[in-house]
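can u do me a favor
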C-alpha cells in the first residue's frame, strides 16, 4: 500500500494506467494526467516484480534506470521536473522515492542492500549530485571478522536545496529547509533550517529558510504572484489526493 501523502503517493484508482513489460518484468503505473516520461529508459539486467510509479504532471527527461534484482520500487512524484537522472538499483526490495514538486538538474541515485532513498517533496538538486546507500566495498573488523560499513537508508526531508557536485553518503538524514553548499560531502545527521558546507559537511548557519525566487525578503517572496501560483498548485494537488487512494 502506498499512502496518499505528498511524499509517497501520486496516483488515484480512476486515473491509473497500468502496463507490464513481460520481457523485462517491470510493472508500470502511470497517471493519465500528463506525465511526460518519454525521456526515461529502463534496463532490467535481471529480476522480477519491479515497479515504477509515475505521478500526475511529472516530467522526466534524458534519464535512465538500471535495475538488477527483485521487488524493487521507483516512485516519481507529481509535478517533479527531473533531467539527466541516473538510477542504479542492485539487489532486492530497494526503494527510491522522489517527492512531489522536486526538481533535479542531474544526479545519480544508487540503492543497494534492500535500502531506500527517500527524497521528500519540494527539494531542489543542482547538477552532478550523487546519493548512495552503500560504500560498494567491504571493510571488516579484524577481531570479529565482521563487516562494519553496513549499507543504510538515505532520507532528505521537505524542501532541501542540494548544490552542485554534492555527495550524500549512506545513512545520511538531512533536515527540512536546509541548504547543502556545492562540493560538500554529507554523512550522518544534518540539522533542519541550516546551511552546511565542506568535506565533511559542517554547519555554517542556522535559523534559515530558502526560496527558489530571488526575492529580497520572505515578505516579498510570499506576496509575489509566482508564489501565489505555486501555493495554488500545491493546494490543488493536496485536494486531489484527498479524494481517494490506490492499493496495488
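np, heres the sequence
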Amino acid at each position: 500500500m502506498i499512502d496518499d501523502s505528498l511524499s509517497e503517493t501520486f496516483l488515484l484508482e480512476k486515473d491509473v494506467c497500468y502496463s507490464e513489460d513481460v520481457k523485462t518484468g517491470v510493472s508500470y503505473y502511470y497517471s493519465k494526467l500528463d506525465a511526460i516520461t518519454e525521456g526515461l529508459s529502463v534496463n532490467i539486467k535481471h529480476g522480477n516484480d519491479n515497479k515504477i510509479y509515475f505521478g500526475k504532471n511529472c516530467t522526466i527527461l534524458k534519464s535512465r534506470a538500471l535495475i538488477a534484482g527483485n521487488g524493487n520500487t521507483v516512485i516519481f512524484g507529481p509535478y517533479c521536473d527531473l533531467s539527466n537522472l541516473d538510477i542504479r538499483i542492485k539487489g532486492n526490495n530497494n526503494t527510491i522515492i522522489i517527492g512531489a514538486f522536486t526538481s533535479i538538474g542531474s544526479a545519480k541515485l544508487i540503492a543497494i542492500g534492500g535500502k531506500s532513498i527517500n527524497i521528500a517533496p519540494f527539494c531542489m538538486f543542482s547538477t552532478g549530485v550523487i546519493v548512495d546507500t552503500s560504500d560498494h566495498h567491504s571493510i571488516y573488523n579484524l577481531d570479529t571478522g565482521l563487516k562494519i560499513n553496513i549499507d543504510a537508508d538515505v532520507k532528505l526531508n521537505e524542501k532541501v536545496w542540494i548544490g552542485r557536485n554534492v555527495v550524500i553518503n549512506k545513512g545520511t538524514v538531512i533536515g527540512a529547509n536546509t541548504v547543502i553548499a556545492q562540493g560538500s560531502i554529507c554523512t550522518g545527521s544534518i540539522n533542519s533550517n541550516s546551511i552546511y558546507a565542506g568535506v565533511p559537511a559542517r554547519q555554517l548557519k542556522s535559523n534559515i529558510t530558502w526560496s527558489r525566487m530571488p526575492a529580497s525578503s520572505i515578505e516579498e517572496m510570499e506576496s509575489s504572484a509566482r508564489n501565489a501560483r505555486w501555493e495554488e498548485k500545491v493546494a490543488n494537488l493536496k485536494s486531489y489526493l484527498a479524494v481517494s487512494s490506490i492499493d496495488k
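The radius of gyration is 18 Å. hope that helps!!
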